[in-house]
Amino acid sequence: MLKYKNSFIQNIYYMLCYAFKVLQQTNYEEVESESFDNIYDLFAEILIKGLNKQLKQGLHKEYVEKHKNLATIRGKVNLRDSLANKMQRKQLLVCEYDELSEDNSLNQILKVTMILLLKEPSVKKEKKAKMRKLMLYFANISIINPRQIKWQNLQFQRNNQTYRMLINICKFIIDGLLLSTEAGTYKTPTFSDENIEMLFERFVLEYYKYHYPHLKVHRPHVKWHLVGEDFNEGMTFLPQMKTDIKLSYQEKSLIIDTKFYGQILSDFEKYKSINLYQIFSYVKNEDVNRTGNVSGMLLYAKTDETKNIEYSFNMDGNRIGVRTLDLGQEFIGIKGQLDGIVREYFGLELYLK
Length: 353
Prior knowledge:
The chain is of the alpha+beta class. The chain folds into 3 domains: 6-60 and 103-191, no CATH class; 62-101, no CATH class; 195-346, Trna Endonuclease, Chain: A, domain 1. The chain has 10 helices and 11 strands. It has a 6-stranded mixed sheet with strand order 4-7-8-9-11-10, sandwiched between helices. The longest helix has 23 residues, at 264-286. The two termini are 36 Å apart.
């Protein structure tokens, strides 16, 4: 598990700003100027700011199914349970109906996340005091088991889009704080490599979308370039080639595959071959006409344990690059590195914002 220095923790805020565009609002400006000693103190502050804004709009409500004993009919009557009541001389009907309620999965996740942060020693006392005040607005929200949250089932629509960033922050917090031993004692909280890899990929994607509108920035699937016979029946045996990021301008394209490993150097020998095979496969199958206009890059997040890596190869007519992006430097340096990739591969100054 990695321990992160202050500059990296501050850069997490900037990456979140890009990854979840809702953060680019005035109520988060104070977060940018504040110094944070640990990742969960930062998350707590972002959550506090987000919840204060959300409460002004009102907590999200959705229809939830109710099953209650009532004196009058509401919704659908459950005959079996109502007869059971009658046999027990209860003059009540068991009714099943939908009710618009704040006690739904999204608000339940927010509440249990605040409960976990209130127990976390690394979160400052003043932030805990703010969260206790916020908890008053969640008095009627049920407490759920954070280990049983089905993240993949959560759905975001137009009426709850403001929750997307907040729920992702909650996932980062819960994943890190619930790393426990079999005996149930908590380990040192950490920001998991899986979560930061997801954030790193989304940050790079959204950075280029925001600052380079002249580039086409997307995440397409690369099709296998098969020749000869009809291979439709055998296609199910081929793995999907889903790119992390593809930048395109006129006839040129750059496919970027982002990577985050806690120990790049110690693992690099193990990982570099499979990663190079992957990016090479993406590039060659994308460059169907063999023009050489499609390039590829492995972009590793640099941590304290690693040195700068910057290599470029001509592989069978296509340029393949391998480099690190230093997340421990000042954010202006990160921007400079990302802007430099566009200049180098496209020969353009497209920075507009």
